[in-house]
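Dear Dr. V.,

Thank you for agreeing to look over these. As mentioned in my earlier message, I'm a first-year student in the group and I'm still getting used to reading structure tokens, so any feedback on how I've presented them would be very welcome. I ran two proteins. I've put each sequence directly above its structure. The first is here:
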Amino acid sequence: MKVLRFLYTSYGVLVFFLLFLIFFFLLLIPIFFSSTYKLTGIFNRWWARLLFFFIALPYKVVYESKLDGKKQYIFCPNHFSYIDIPSMGLNHHNTIFVGKSEINKVPVFGYMYSKLHITVDRTKLKSRYTTLVKTKEALDEGKSLVVFPEGGIVTEKEPVMGKFKDGPFRVSIEKQIPIVPVTIPYNWIILPPNEFLLNWKPMKVIFHRPIDPSKYTLDTIDEYKEYVRSVLQEELTRHLNK
């Protein structure tokens, strides 16, 4: 069984990087021409769809309500697996990511990621502050964001989420941009965080209703975090018990 999973994973990694080589040249357009930033989301969506097609991994994207294509959102998914990032590429909304700076160290891919997305070194106060500033600037430019509120894969017991960071909730309140909780219930089974071996299982991505930030202030940010967390955890638990 592990041999088959190893072969499947090796094939998946090969497909991922072959597609990356193709899309890298396309992504040079928004890298060098910042006004075309919306192409980042479009190309990410093509990349994700082709990736899951070629590795024969079926997926279902569910929207609890129709999102306004002209509005900005901050998408906050749970994060248990490395495959969560391409999963969020299936989003119909064009977005950029806020992610860990470790990705910058990956040859070529790290260059592309650092130029198109926002990275943060959470061990350094200055980096966290700079990321907060860049995040606000991105919102001022009209961009929508994907931010993993746990700050990375930090859980010790999937599918129970780790503690949420303040960042996405703070900018949501300050900029009055709605947060959309996103539940990805099965990725921790498809690609477990403690073993980089793929399992075949249909994927599901659930975009919940946007949350109005006007109901919260910086003094009630913990209530905001807890509400988003409860939406995600309830959905995770529901799928676990199916």
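The second protein is here, in the same arrangement:
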Amino acid sequence: MHVLIALFFAVHAVRSGQQTYWLFILFSFPLLGSLVYFLTIYLPSSRLERGARRAVAAAGRALDPTRDLREAQSAYDYAPTAQNQMQLAAALLAAGDAQTAAQHYEDCLKGPFATDMEIRLGAARAFLACGRSAQAVAHAEAIRQAQPDFRAETVSLLLARAYAADGQEARAQAEYEATHARFGTFESLAEYAIWAAEAGRADLAERLYAEARQTITRWSRPVRTQNQALIRRLEAAQRGASA
């Protein structure tokens, strides 16, 4: 049994590109070596560890929801650099102050980071969140024109939402359709279904919702939990369309 466990970790070490001395440790000291490898290499890179870190971070935000914003504002007040302004803009957007976040993102794009796609993506999100859909469309389209492969699915879904918010329903549907056809992810399917329900496309919404439910039923509980926010939005949109 000890050797089998050591072999499992040895395969992990090879596939993950660890130093070759781990193989010596694992097979020379099967029990102790496996334990050390598990604690120092395997666990920190596992989904369990990442999930625990996310849970701790979420708990921290729940206990002190304005902490990130206060720290970002303090850092920017002390040193108003472009980097600190970017972090402040992201914190403002996360805190719900999309209008102020959009202004900070716009200011960042006027300086040496004018071609930074992450900043432009943040600007598009902020403008969409504060109801300025035309600016959101402009920023998302600028990203696609400058770097078509930059976070392609994220940009495509954001652009589709921006088109819908701007009243460009035909372009929104075409963008959702193309995004789902290209990526085939649950997110692209769910966002398409939500749009269809909200746009009054009942037949399309029902078909997409049924497809999404088939996917959800095959998921394990942890996967469902991870996607709970999107599932709730999907369910709410479907109920609204059926009302």
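From my reading of the second output: The CA atoms of residues 13 and 243 lie 54 Å apart. The longest helix spans residues 47-63. Does that match how you would interpret it?

Kind regards,
E.
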